[in-house]
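Hi V.,

You were right to ask for the full record rather than a summary. Here it is.
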Amino acid sequence: MEGVSLVRASLSSPVVAELIGLLNAELLGLYPEEGATTFDLDAAEVEEGSGVFFLAMTGDDALGCGALRRLNGEEGEIKRMFVRPEARGRGVSRLVLGGLEEEARRLGLTRLLLETGDRLGAALGLYGAFGFTRCPCFGSYATKPLSVCMSKELEP
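Predicted structure:
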C-alpha cells in the first residue's frame, strides 16, 4: 500500500494506547453484553522473538494496528486488529494482516488462530479472504457464545 508502512511498536507507546482505546470503545459499543469482550495482551507477548505489535503508519499518523503472539511452539494468535474508521477501505487491514503472517513465518509458526466477533462482518470477510476458516473456539473464547474463532495453516 503506497505511503503506508508497518513499524514495530511497544504496547506502552501512547499511539498504541490511543488505537487500543478506540478499538476497545468500538467493541464495547458493538458488544455491550457482560463478558462478551476480551482485551488481554501482555507486552512480553509481543517482544522480539515472541511476537510483534505493528502500527500501520503514514508519516506521523497511525492508521491501524495488529498484533501476533505465540501461543505455543508452533501456533500463534492474531490480536488487536484495528483500523481507524476514517482510514477504512484503503487496504490498511490487509497490509497489517499480511505483515503479521510474514512475522509468523519468520518466527517458525505453522498455524495461526484468531478470535473475532459474530457481528464483525468486515473482519470475517478479511480473514476469509486471507484463507482463515472457522474452527472450534479455543482458550477463554470457548465459553463466549458471540465469539467466532478461525485458523490458518501456514506454509513455509
